[in-house]
Design a protein that fits this description.
288 residues; mainly beta; 24 strands
Length: 288
């Protein structure tokens, strides 16, 4: 079982501000992943879950900052499903119908959760109530649809669609009609989009440099620009609440190279390294 989280509830500005970024961490000596919280201003991360036989990954804040959704899986790699828990401790709940699911994303109104779930050999995007009902399948393709992220008004989801050829592009789907639109071009290598409150989508792209860099684009596909340029792999971007900065993971080309959390302004300036230990720090989510 997970120990109480101590990130602070909505309205507790001091506690919430102290550890507003939640992320997953593992090390070579402790390969089981746990969730951690830390301040965007730096300091020592605080371990939030303590699970010796299962891994907790892919955290997602509720919009009111009172709960965190995450994925739990066992040592054999089988995904137990999506769980939620209070940020002030306890009340661990499984989301029914999510066995095998990943990439949870809480809706802006706090009533629904989007996720990717296996259907045969590929994964599709689903949305359900936070209690797991009713679950609605949104996509039906032969590709892998992953990592949904909500528009600020809750009317759309963006996600990345990976095809059998190894390409992946950012897509947008309107929930009321299920109409889908490509945001980025065919033949791209675009992953892990995150939609800001100000209406921009950040994502990680393996570009012509051979490295993954952070990019930003408007939901209609216009205004594409690159944020990071280092010869490192930058992935899992997550917007700050005001849309001015991003937290992301920067790492090398293999598992032997540690991966750390960094902050960067949306214009590419102000790069700051947050974590510095010999660890893999992944999938950060910034408290709304």
């Amino acid at each position: 079982m997970a120990v109480p989280l101590t990130l602070g509830a909505a309205g507790d500005a001091g506690a919430a501000g102290d550890r507003a970024i939640v992320f997953a961490r593992y090390t070579a000596t402790a390969p089981v992943e746990d969730l951690y919280g830390m301040s965007p201003s730096g300091g020592t991360p605080v371990k939030l879950t303590h699970t010796s036989t299962v891994s907790d990954v892919m955290p997602s804040w509720s919009p009111d900052g009172k709960r965190v959704a995450f994925v739990r899986y066992g040592s054999g790699g089988a995904i137990d499903g999506i769980w939620t828990m209070q940020t002030t401790g306890g009340d661990l709940k499984a989301v029914p119908g999510t066995k095998g699911a990943s990439d949870p994303a809480w809706s802006p109104d706090g009533k629904r959760i989007a996720y990717a779930k296996p259907v045969g050999t590929q994964r599709e995007i689903y949305v359900s109530g936070i209690d797991g009902t009713p679950a609605t399948r949104l996509t039906h393709t032969a590709a892998d649809d992953l990592h949904p992220t909500w528009s600020p008004d809750g009317k759309y989801l963006a996600f990345n669609r990976a095809d059998a050829g190894g390409n992946s592009r950012v897509m947008r789907i309107r929930l009321s009609t299920l109409a889908q639109t490509a945001v980025t071009g065919a033949g791209s290598h675009d992953w892990t989009p995150d939609w800001s409150r100000s209406g921009r989508i950040a994502f990680s792209r393996v570009d012509s440099s051979g490295f993954a860099h952070l990019y930003v684009v408007r939901p209609d596909g216009t205004g594409l620009h690159r944020i990071t340029t280092a010869r490192r792999n930058d992935k899992y971007p997550s917007w700050s609440p005001d849309g001015s900065r991003l937290v992301f993971t920067r790492g090398g080309s293999d598992d032997a190279d540690p991966e750390h959390l960094y902050l960067v302004r949306a214009d590419g300036t102000g790069l700051t390294q947050l974590t510095k230990t010999d660890s893999h720090d992944l999938q950060a989510d910034w408290r709304p």
